[in-house]
Amino acid sequence: MAVSGAADHAGARGPVHGGAGAEPEHGRPKLPGAVPARDSYRVLHFSDVHLERGFAGVSRWDFLNKRAVGYLNLALHRRARFAEAERKVRTLPEFIAREGVHLGLCTGDYTALGTWPELRYAREITGLVAAATEDFVTVPGNHDVYMPDTLEDSRFDYLFGDLMPNDLPELASADGWPKVRLYGEHLAIVTFNSARPNPSIRFSSGRVPDPQLDALSALFTHERLAGRFLLMGTHYAPRLANGHPDTLRHGLINADELLERCEVVARGALCHGHQHDLYHVREPGLRMDLCGAGSATYRGREGIWVYDIGREEAFATPGSWTGERYELDTARRVKLNAA
Ligand SMILES: [Fe+2]
Ligand SMILES: [Fe+2]
Asked: pLDDT band at 204, cuts 50/70/90?
């Protein structure tokens, strides 16, 4: 285990604790309206890249909890599955240029154990993708807020805060979510947070806090969002690929309530990660589609979505990994909000 006993080794901790490592260059959130108005927006959605290159400098104390089990799982299984994660993510800027992508959305799980070195590394690599887009938004996954210490020092907000802008902060709940990004006259990306620490080794579940659900309901009928396609992004999956709910141990425990609230959305898609397979499902009674991006980097299962959001119609096209680059599979294109 590459864990040092030096608790405050440079780079292991955040600014509060005096980590002296160089911080990644943070871009400033682009101003509302900075993205040109278009008749159609092309959005790349990817998730669960699970980047990791060791834990140099992380205190042993930080592993005296579920992280010890997580580390064992990483060493025995996960590290091999995600061995080429960085190489795969580094090809995304070329994909974005090749396919004419305008906007980026990542639905979390950048790391394995939510430590400072992992998050810094992930922010550095993600920055390359974000820089290739006109605008990029994200949410944390459960692995990014793995233990309560991640929230105590707000490490995800510190490193990824510039990728979580909000054009309508007055409509957020007290925790700052949901966040809205308005594009032109017909698209809004609405992100909300369903990830939380799960200190028990038996659980990796998520939940959308009740105030966020209330804020989402208010957003759905707000005049600033009227008539827009709502591309919603969160980490947890409300439904599995077979259309059924996930277990209470691993899934979104208030998925039914979330989906009930979404019944008023006329045009939209709920985009998520967490399940490491790419899929698309419809929920009875819901006009919006559910699109799981799976993992962009899980060996043998790599997937991404590209959404084309026009004024009248919207489509989702899956992409897969060829071994060298991601390519779209237009034969599997799905029309969103189909009657
Ligand atoms: Fe994941
Ligand atoms: Fe996850």
From this structure: very high
Handedness of CA 191, 192, 198, 201 (dihedral sign): negative
**How far is it, in rounded angstroms, from Cα 197 to Cα 178?**
19
Which ligand minimizes its atom distance to the CA of 140?
2
Q: Which two tokens stand for residue 121?
A: 């590394």
pLDDT value for 11? 45
- Residue-wise pLDDT for 53-80, tens only, equals 999 899 999 998 999 999 999 999 999 9
H or E stretch at 91: none
126: left (phi over 0), alpha (psi -120 to 50) or beta: alpha
Residues lying with their CB under 5 A of ligand 2, a single-atom ion: 109, 141-142, 274
281 beta partners: 290
Q: How far is the CA of 67 from the centre of ligand 2 (A)?
A: 15
CB 139 within 8 A of CB 108: yes
Give the whole-angstrom CA distance, residue 249 versus residue 235.
Answer: 15
Confidence grade of residue 14 (pLDDT, cut at 50, 70, 90): low
Of the candidate ranges 19-28, 102-111, 269-278, 300-309, the one whose mean pLDDT is the lowest = 19-28
- Please give the distance, rounded to the nearest whole angstrom, from the Cα atom of residue 25 to the centre of ligand 2: 26
Q: What are the domain boundaries of the chain?
A: 35-335
35-335 falls under which CATH superfamily?
Metallo-dependent phosphatases (3.60.21.10)
